[in-house]
Specification:
Largest sheet: 5 strands, mixed
Shape: globular
Number of domains: 1
Distance between the termini: 53 Å
Bound molecules: flavin mononucleotide
CATH topology: Rossmann fold
CATH architecture: 3-Layer(aba) Sandwich
CATH superfamily: Flavodoxin domain
Order of helices and strands: EHEHEEHE
Number of helices: 3
CATH class: Alpha Beta
Length: 99
């Protein structure tokens, strides 16, 4: 059975919402075993990377940058022989449109 780790970096929670959606689809439609980790608490999973077939990495973008904790995880050389998918949540406007 496919085992997937979804690691995310969020500031306000939007990215976590998307991670929960992705995880539900992977579990229900594709029968994956899914673990979810906030990048701030990734230490526990780093040692267990060998258990996973697939790694999904998600981050929000603020002023053009990934969240630093998820960026440093993504830069690590620990993804050999794994399927890796990356997504970002971004966009929107900080100002309301004036009518
Ligand atoms: C202070 C701030 C700066 C942002 N900067 C950008 C940016 O440079 N580019 C972009 O596409 N989106 C930007 N966004 C939009 C966020 O990436 C988007 O709302 C994201 O879904 C937030 O995810 P989070 O709730 O997981 O932190 C910014 C949002 C905020 C609040």
């Amino acid at each position: 059975m496919n085992k997937t780790l979804v690691v995310y970096g969020t500031r306000k929670g939007t990215t976590k919402e998307k991670v929960l959606l992705i995880s539900e689809v992977l579990k229900e439609k594709f029968l994956h075993i899914v673990d979810i980790a906030d990048s701030k608490q990734i230490k526990y999973y780093k040692k267990r990377m060998g258990e996973y077939d697939n790694i999904i990495i998600g981050s929000s973008i603020v002023t053009g940058l990934w969240k630093s904790s998820i960026l440093s995880f993504a830069r690590r050389d620990i993804f050999q022989n794994k399927n890796v998918a990356i997504f970002v949540t971004a966009g929107g406007t900080l100002n309301k449109v004036k009518k």
